[in-house]
Design brief:
This protein is elongated. It is mostly helical. The protein has one domain. 75% of the residues lie in helices and 0% in strands. The protein contains 6 helices and no strands. Helix 2 packs parallel to helix 6.
């Protein structure tokens, strides 16, 4: 289980690096071609948008994986440990339900966009929308892993979790 997770983590990190690189290179190229060479590139803005959308949804999964979402925990920390555990459990359950809904409607949007193509890149608009259910599925995956980690006995090794 740990080997599969490590591969998914590595792939996710690599995809974020690739999408960030594509975003930066396409924006810089567009600026140079538009304002220096006075010959704007066709589709570079759409390429930047497409890679940015994917970077955002994949990045949300990474932030969830690493537990780095912004939290206001003033009141949470004042709760007794048992209540804190219940709040965390409820929060994860709500996360699963919410992102299950996001996956469902993400696929609905993709279906509604079938046959439509972007103007600049001439790629299916569903390429943009597909980032939503993929990101939500990754969020569900990492949330389920947190449930499993908390349910594992304290003596379990990292490979067993």
């Amino acid at each position: 289980m740990y080997a599969i997770r490590a591969k998914i983590d590595w792939l996710l990190d690599a995809l974020i690096i690739v999408t960030l690189t594509i975003t930066i290179v396409s924006v810089v190229a567009q600026v140079i071609f538009r304002y220096v060479l006075h010959n704007p590139l066709v589709g570079s803005e759409e390429l930047a948008k497409l890679s940015f959308v994917w970077m955002i949804f994949l990045g949300a999964a990474v932030v969830t994986r690493d537990g780095l979402h912004i939290q206001v925990d003033f009141f949470f920390l004042k709760l007794p440990p048992a209540a804190q555990a219940m709040v965390v459990w409820a929060m994860r359950l709500i996360t699963l339900v919410l992102f299950g809904v996001v996956v469902y409607f993400g696929f609905q949007v993709m279906a509604a966009q079938s046959g439509m193509k972007s103007v600049g890149l001439n790629v299916p608009l569903a390429y943009y929308s597909f980032a939503v259910p993929v990101g939500a599925l990754l969020l569900i995956y990492y949330t389920l892993l947190e449930f499993r980690k908390r349910a594992a006995p304290p003596s379990a090794t990292a490979d067993e979790r």
